[in-house]
């Protein structure tokens, strides 16, 4: 009888422990993968757009401002923002003097040039313009470039959205004074 009670008790313990077979699966969810770089999806539409440059790397995103087809102008200016806790605004090339690089549309001429990129925390204000009343250039080209660097110390999970925005955009059309410029941005995520 004692043996029978012992066997019944052992059966109860094994059933409560899930059969005692070991090797069961853990009920804890897996941890999300840590991000090691940036992924950017170009905007689907817009007259002025920030698009990924082919020279971007997995950790340094270079964005080109491209304007509308069949439009001409002499310069552009805007304020670009990224959350500084999640990514860094950096120079396109380490040797650049400014936080903006001229594209291939505007002819800046001799120094001093109208090329300026002022960085303050997570914001860079940029201006690129031809001097004087020089001939207007086609805007459906690379007007300027800015860069965003992956911030490894942020400890982001892969898939985390990194908000970016452009505000206060203006362009200098072929004739007249500055005009408002809405810039479409894509989606930036940690990957």
Keywords:
6-stranded mixed sheet; 8% helix; 1 helix; 191 residues; 6-stranded antiparallel sheet; Immunoglobulin-like; mainly beta; 14 strands; elongated; disordered N terminus
Brief rundown of the structure:
Helix content is 8%, strand content 40%. The chain is mainly beta.
Tell me about this structure:
The protein has 1 helix and 14 strands. With 191 residues, it is mostly beta strands. It has a single domain, classed as Sandwich (Immunoglobulin-like), CATH 2.60.40.680. Strands 2, 3, 5, 6, 10 and 13 form a 6-stranded mixed β-sheet that branches. Strands 4, 7, 8, 9, 11 and 12 form a 6-stranded antiparallel β-sheet that branches. Strands 1-14 form a two-stranded antiparallel sheet. A hairpin with a 2-residue loop joins strand 7 and strand 8. It is elongated and about 70 Å long. Residues 1-21 have low confidence and may be disordered.
Q: Which SSEs are present, and which pair or pack?
A:
Elements: H1 2-16, E1 38-41, E2 48-52, E3 60-66, E4 72-82, E5 87-90, E6 101-102, E7 114-120, E8 123-129, E9 137-138, E10 142-150, E11 164-173, E12 179-180, E13 183-184, E14 187-190
Parallel strand pairs: 2-13
Antiparallel strand pairs: 1-14, 2-3, 3-10, 4-8, 4-9, 4-11, 5-10, 6-10, 7-8, 11-12
């Amino acid at each position: 009888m004692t043996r029978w009670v012992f066997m019944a008790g052992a059966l109860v313990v094994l059933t409560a422990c899930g059969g005692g077979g070991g090797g069961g699966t853990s009920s804890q969810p897996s941890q999300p993968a840590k991000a090691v770089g940036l992924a950017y999806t170009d905007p689907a539409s817009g007259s002025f757009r920030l698009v990924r440059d082919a020279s971007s790397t997995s950790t340094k995103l270079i964005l080109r401002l491209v304007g509308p087809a069949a439009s001409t102008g002499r310069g552009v200016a805007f304020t670009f923002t990224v959350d500084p806790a999640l990514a860094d605004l950096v120079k396109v090339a380490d040797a650049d003097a400014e936080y903006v690089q001229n594209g291939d549309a505007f002819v800046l001429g001799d120094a001093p040039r109208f090329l300026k990129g002022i960085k303050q925390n997570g914001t860079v204000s940029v201006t690129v313009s031809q001097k004087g009343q020089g001939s207007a250039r086609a805007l459906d080209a690379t007007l300027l470039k800015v860069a965003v660097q992956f911030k490894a110390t942020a400890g982001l999970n892969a898939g985390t959205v990194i908000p970016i925005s452009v505000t206060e955009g203006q362009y200098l059309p072929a004739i007249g004074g500055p005009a408002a410029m809405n810039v479409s941005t894509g989606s930036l995520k940690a990957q």
